[in-house]
Amino acid sequence: MFDDSIKILTKPREAFAEFKTKANKREAVLILAWFYGVLGLIIGLFIALAAYLFSSSPLAFLLPAGFTPIISLAAVILVPVFLVIGSIFLYAFSAFLSKIVADLLGGKASFTEWFYVSAKINLLVFFGLALDIFIRLIPSVVIRLAFDLISLLYGAYLIYLSVILTSEIAKLSVGKSILAIV
User: Fold this and answer.
1) What angle do CA 27, 179, 23 make, to 5 degrees?
2) This prediction's pTM
3) Angle value at C-alpha 159, between 156 and 162, nearest 5 degrees
């Protein structure tokens, strides 16, 4: 997965052309399930930790007795499940919309190709979101502005990658690709 991300960053046209030939729904679902399952588990563990810490606070009387283990267990199990199911539906819906818009502009790509490439690029999108969250935690204004600039440039590069992705997958011109992603 990480080598595919490096390939997308360094040689996007070749990477998207290669992904188009290898596209299959099963692998796309597995990529999303693995990635968002791990992410959901991490979030669930943070929620469980917060519930445990809250149980010993002065406001613990707000929760019924014995409720903390239930919240913790539910968070660790349900957050990954809902995150995986939600991400699969979200990426499928996004691929469906991308296919419709590209088809209206004369593109020629299947739903499977859109879905697979969307799953492959999700690590880069997540990295951008993680970078943005990290920036919000920095207290220094000068360092934060520098990271904001990096985040802005990274976002612009992701838009550029979206244009290349659309032109390569749907076989559209760059102008139509820009119109499709807007």
Assistant:
1) 15
2) 0.75
3) 155
